[in-house]
Amino acid sequence: MTRATLARLFAAIVVLTVVIAVPMTQIHWDGTQASSQADQIDTLLNVMIVLSSFVFAVVLVMLGYCIWKYRAKPGDESDGEPIHGNTKLEVAWTVIPTVIVLFGAIYSWIVLGDIETKAADALPVNVTAQQYKWTFNYPLPNGQSVSSNKLVVPSGRQLDLHLTSLDVIHSFWVPEWRIKRDLVPAGEGGNDIDNTVRVTPDRLGTYNVVCTELCGFGHATMRALVQVVPSDQFASWLAKQPRVKPQAGTATGSSTGSPSEYSNGSPTGGP
Amino acid sequence: MVAALKRPGLGRAALGGLLGFGFGYGLVVVLRLISGLPATQTAQTGYPQLIVGMITAAFGFLIGLGAFDYWFRWAAGAPTYPAELEHKAHGAHSWRDYFKFNTDHKVIGIQYICTTFVFFFIGGAMAMIMRTELAQPGTQIVEPGTFNSLFSAHAAIMIFVFVIPVFAGIANYVLPLMIGAPDMAFPRLNALSFWMLPIAGLLFVGSFLAPGGGFDAGWTGYAPLSTGAPLGQSFFNLGVQFAGASSVATALNFLVTIITMRAPGMNFWRLPLLVWANLSTSLLVVAATPFIAGVQFMVLFDRLLHTNFFQELNGGDVLSYQHIFWFYSHPAVYIMMLPGFGIVSEVISTHARKPIFGYRLMALALIGIIVLSYTVWAHHMFVSGMFAWLRIPMMITTLLIAVPTGIKIFSWLATLFGSKLHLRSTAMLFALGFIVTFTIGGISGVMLGMVPIDIHVSDTYFIVAHIHFVLFGGSVFTIFAGIYHWFPKMTGRMYDERLGRVHFWLTLVGMLGTFVPMHWIGMEGMPRRVADYSAQFGDWNLLISCFSFLLGAAQLIFLYNMIVSWKWGPLAGDNPWRARTIEWLVSSPPPIFNFDQIPRVVGGPYEYGVPGARHAILGPAEAEVGAAEPAVAGSAGTGPT
Ligand code: HEM
Ligand SMILES: [Cu+2]
Ligand SMILES: [Cu+2]
């Protein structure tokens, strides 16, 4: 292959990379950003989209070039050149991808550290899931708490969400916040489950909590409303809610028995 | 009639199944009565009488079929085989032999392929029902509970009784031929492995008849949803046992065959890459599969025996299910991909008329993949609430797997450089198409490996897109490549290339149209495993459903082409692709015992373009012309300049 061909191929790869990457990064695939974590995650995603577009362009251009250039003429039944390998090339395509993925790993590690840093004034909320509903419980300084079936939160303040499930595994996801974590039935402080997830909503509006872990026939519609409001409005909302006395378990009015006659986690039968 | 029931065969197998079921059922009832319990138990996680009955029915079926006849006779000290039966159980003399217990690897290969494709179409039909339901938001044709059973069965069928075993079937047929062996090392075990497969498939499909409906906790069957689910779940737990036992036995068989039955001269650096791929796959299967077998037993025991492995309120641990499950199921994704890598290597070098670029590095990359694949399982659990620190090492190893995988892709591309590329074979189209679609799947895989991205897209349609790019665009494309490539060898006839091309292009377009948009709706907020979704995703889903119907219809073309060509296709000749590996040196289809004379291997498998080079020689009479072995190593040779 001549230098000129090589240069042309490289140019084609660059052009294709741009053609794929530009529209792909311009469209906000992830949708609205409504938390201070979302931006970093989306940036990471965009960096990956650009790198991936490059890799994909290399593959497409090389494949296209070979098909165009080396397609056998009809009737040509001879063999190709007996090239068995090329150490330099093989080293190159082992080392370069290694560097790229290690870069990705370190970058992700940094982002992960950032989005999970705990803020001093984080607002604790206990989230309890059961087939097929959500309960949000706000502990108050006086030992009482407020319970709600929608998640009302102040904008700009970090939430420290403590997640529990009363039956099977569910998963807490607010797409606009980019944050997701399973709610595992683990009993009180049980079994070393990492049940705390942090997120800082920073955009006023109404969103949905979506359950993303299959939890039974009601899984698809297991949603709860999220309202992100200015902090003074949050304070007055909280003040207006009825207080509940503290009790074992995080959810109010939770039944420890089976919440539905369907699959309730533990096996049902006697012997 | 009575005579027919005494002879080994499907008739006696059916009888054996019935008797077995009666025995198991009766045993439980009697034991319960002795213990002073009600005769039967019908709590949704119970039904011990049915479950024991199903296990004994399966064994009754196998015994009736004749799977154990030889071993029973041997154990009893009787003559192991009545002389007149010897040859009836080996090799196909009429189509009826395909419905019997047969020890010929070629018959077993075809039995595997046909059976698994039946399940492919059943699983595909379930996909069509799901896509019909999903074409519009809201509930139209199936209830949410049924929908859950549909995607659970769809995935279980596709994975356990299609992709994994169809590769075992293809390798069963071609691998012994490729290494110059007369058969597999353990032919009876081989036949037994095959016959466990329909049992698994029937359990998956039959679960829909169980009270409470089919299993509906997904193919992942996470506890405690699965431990509390209705009876159908137990069908899944049992089906996995049979599919798993079948694949472990086959893997052992492959290992022993590859290690001990290579023809003279076939050293490891002369093995075709398909053989390398199955060697690596088998190493994964034997070590990983026991984990899923174990964990499904634990679920079954939790359900039936109240063992409380995963019951948090009784001292169990919910997350341990996921760890054990993925300790198998991540390696399983390579179990479903490596044999395909092998197929693609064969097809590409044959139709590019070139040696595989960097053969040794290709083989080593396979080994790299299997080693790494044991160290990444928890990337499926980044949001599970597991020990948080574990996410980092798992992320790094996950991303590193992209390196050996990339080596494979780049080496295939480099193989095309300076080639004489022929696109006339549909096999080659699927192999090249695979490079594109699998790269997309690999790229989304790398993104999923990065914890912050995975936190957002895990358990969304992005995952559904990724799964299908690697399983459909990856595994299934290579399966089609393999079927088209060896169809002439297996049947002696040629398929219709024109229909093949139509099949390829419709499949490619259908697959891109179906699965590309799924990435987008996933990122935007559509969760996975839902029968209903918010109206904003309606248009995309309608489009996806339309493309998926195209994709489904395209597979009917394949079916038609295969059936008609098998019966009426033009004769293919021994070596229609002018390939070099040993299976092409014998007739199509090969003789019952493969070789009249053991072949001698004198060079590498892909020495296209090397003057005078040969891979193998049949028969000692022939002079070893040009037996000098050319360089095979990836290190020697010239670059594609
Ligand atoms: C005609 C082509 C296919 C279509 C239209 C299709 C469609 C679907 C649909 C609609 C789902 C359910 C997604 C959800 O609700 O989460 C699904 C899940 C799945 N499919 Fe397919 N599928 C096809 C082929 C395949 C093949 C060939 C395989 C494997 C080799 C496969 C493996 C899976 C797996 C593993 C799941 C995940 C199920 C789960 O979440 O438990 N599919 N597919
Ligand atoms: Cu759910
Ligand atoms: Cu994995």
Number of strands of chain B: 2
CATH topology-level name of the largest domain in chain B: Cytochrome C Oxidase, Chain A
- Please, how many helices of chain A? 4
Strand content of chain B: under 5%
CATH homologous superfamily descriptor of the largest domain in chain B? Cytochrome c oxidase-like, subunit I domain
Biggest sheet architecture of chain B:
2 strands, antiparallel
Largest interface chains and counts: A-B, 96 and 117 residues
Q: Helix/strand-derived class of chain A? A: alpha+beta
Task: Provide structural commentary.
- The complex is a heterodimer of chains A (271) and B (641).
- Chain A contains 4 helices and 11 strands; from the N terminus they run H-H-H-E-E-E-E-E-E-E-E-E-E-H-E.
- A 6-stranded mixed sheet of chain A has the order 8-5-1-2-3-11, with no helix packed on it.
- In chain A, a hairpin with a 4-residue loop joins strand 6 (170-174) and strand 7 (179-183).
- Chain A has helices spanning 3-26, 36-70, 87-115, 231-240, and strands at 123-130, 133-139, 145-148, 151-154, 159-165, 170-174, 179-183, 196-199, 205-211, 223-229, 243-244.
- Chain A has 2 domains: 3-67 and 89-115; 123-261, Sandwich (Immunoglobulin-like).
- Residues 248-265 of chain A have low confidence and may be disordered.
- With 271 residues, chain A is α+β, with helices and mostly antiparallel strands.
- Chain B folds into 2 domains: 2-50 and 59-74, no CATH class; 103-568, Cytochrome C Oxidase, Chain A (Up-down Bundle).
- Helices cover 62% and strands 1% of the residues of chain B.
- Chain B has helices spanning 2-6, 10-34, 48-65, 69-76, 105-134, 144-178, 187-206, 232-260, 273-305, 318-335, 338-352, 359-373, 391-416, 426-449, 451-457, 461-491, 497-524, 538-568; strands at 600-601, 616-617.
- Chain B has a two-stranded antiparallel ribbon with strand order 1-2.
- Residues 622-641 of chain B have low confidence and may be disordered.
- The chains are: A alpha+beta (271), B mainly alpha (641).
- At the A-B interface, helix 2, helix 3, strand 7 and strand 9 of A face helix 6, helix 9, helix 12, helix 13 and helix 14 of B.
- Protoporphyrin IX containing FE (HEM) binds at residues 124, 127, 130-131, 151-152, 154-155, 158-159, 163, 218-220, 464, 467-468, 471-472, 475-476, 514, 528-529, 548, 551-552 of chain B.
